[in-house]
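Objective 1b of the project was to move from sequence-level analysis to a structural picture of ligand recognition. The entry below was assembled by the postdoctoral researcher (A.K.) and checked by the PI before modelling. It contains the amino acid sequence of the target and the SMILES of the bound compound, zinc ion.
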Amino acid sequence: MQQFPCPFCGPRNETEFHFVVEAGHSRPEPADQVSDAEWAEYLYLFKAPKGAASEVWVHLTCREYFIMQRDTQTRAVLGVQTLPGADL
Ligand SMILES: [Zn+2]
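Corresponding predicted holo structure:
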């Protein structure tokens, strides 16, 4: 089992985390003026890079959201950083 580093709690088992979204993937606004194609792109199309990726994750135990940089090919965690204002 892989360990992920929560920036608030330290290393924990990967089962305590949930992937949220690719970092920088934001909802198009105003939603009522967005075309169907733009909305579908927002909902279903992601970059999904092979290699270095920056993603928003949540640690389910402390409920904190943060950004994790990881290599999607090797699964290596490259770094984590807090996400200011993301206390949802
Ligand atoms: Zn945590």
